[in-house]
Write a structure and sequence with these properties.
Blueprint lengths: L1 H12 L9 H15 L4 E5 L13 E5 L6 H16 L1
Antiparallel strand pairs: 1-2
Length: 87
């Protein structure tokens, strides 16, 4: 019984959600949110990755602090990306 449970966990751990956006769509979505939020500073956008979480499949903003980006600004951009992707 324990072998079946462990095997099931290992199989489920390998399951991921594929990104739902093309690289061009991710760039457009991130750029639209950067323009909408107008957070001060600079932000790095990492592409979405296969993930068990739908949010992990979305692009993500990270503040470039040495260029004036803020954690709050990145959070606002990421919230916009999640809203836009859901809508």
């Amino acid at each position: 019984m324990q072998k079946i449970t462990l095997l099931s966990i290992l199989i489920l751990a390998g399951c991921t959600v594929k990104p739902t956006f093309s690289p061009d769509q991710e760039k457009a979505l991130a750029q639209a949110c950067i323009e909408e939020v107008q957070a001060p500073g600079t932000y790095s956008i990492s592409p979405g990755q296969p993930s068990a979480s739908p949010e992990g499949a979305l692009p993500r903003a990270v503040a470039v602090k040495r260029l004036g980006g803020t954690t709050a600004g990145a959070a606002s951009i990421n919230a916009c990306i999640q809203r836009q992707a859901a809508g």
